[in-house]
Amino acid sequence: MVLAINIRADNSSAGEIERLWDQVGAFEAKPSMRTLGYRPHFTFAIYDGPGIDEKAAWDAMLAAVARETQLLIQFKRIRWFEGSPLVLWAEPAVDEALARIHGLVSATIDPAHCRPHYRPGAWIPHCTLGTDIADERRNDAIAFARAFDRSIEVMFDVVDCVVFPPVRIVAERRLAS
Predict the structure, then answer these.
(1) What are phi and psi of 93, to 5 degrees?
(2) Alpha carbons within 13 A on the beta-carbon side of 165
(3) What is the pLDDT of residue 50?
(4) Strand locations in 9-151 (E)
(5) Mean per-residue pLDDT of the chain
(6) How many CA atoms lie within 13 A of 11 on its CB side?
(7) pTM, full prediction
(8) How far is CA 129 from CA 2, 24, 103, 153, 173, in A?
């Protein structure tokens, strides 16, 4: 079982990211984010296998957001993670709350239990737009990312703990407005 703790956009502002999912999905054999069946989100930590259970992950998330309210996040750029397949993601404007939450989660649960890309010093806040860009569409996807010249705002209003695959929410809480 794989666990993740996230903050997601569970409101109409999520449509901005979902429209980008549809555009990026054109570069994939199968639109990865629509197939996921889960709302736009930021993941703070992913835990594989034994060692961290649902309760520990959820308790860490609740402690990390104890004083947080809904986060209005601005996006002005689309970036990518190199690799095969290429992954496109929306880059948030600098947001101290995201870093603070991540830091508090990492202070509660030893980051050695977390996947390496989600550990302090390695974690890059990102809202994924597509995880399976076809190699033959790579250049088109990068051109799309470079051409993005808009600014969108999305309200992230629910924290949760999920298990996957497939994504199943095991605990969630709406943040105060």
Answers:
(1) -60, 160
(2) 4
(3) 80
(4) 41-48, 71-81, 86-92, 127-133
(5) 96
(6) 16
(7) 0.96
(8) 21, 6, 24, 15, 24
Which fold is adopted by the domain 2-174?
Answer: Cyclic Phosphodiesterase; Chain: A, (3.90.1140)
Total residues found in the chain within this entry: 177
Question: Quick one: which of 13, 42, 2 has its CA closest to 164?
Answer: 2
On the question of pLDDT at 94 being above 90, the answer is: no
Q: How many other C-beta atoms can be found within 10 angstroms of the C-beta atom of residue 11?
A: 15
Of 24, 36, 19, 17, which Cα lies nearest the Cα of 137? Answer: 24
Six-digit token pair at 54? 């649902």
Residues 93, 150 contacting (CB under 8 angstroms): no
Cβ pair 45, 109 in contact under 8 A: yes
Handedness of CA 125, 130, 132, 135 (dihedral sign): negative
Residues 14 and 90: their CA atoms lie apart, in Å, by 12
Give the separation between CA 45 and CA 40, rounded to whole angstroms.
16
Q: What is the mean pLDDT of residues 135-148?
A: 97
Instruction: Let me know: does 42 contact 127? Beta carbons within 8 Å.
Output: yes
Helix, strand counts (H, E) of the chain: 5, 8
Q: Where are the domains of the chain?
A: 2-174
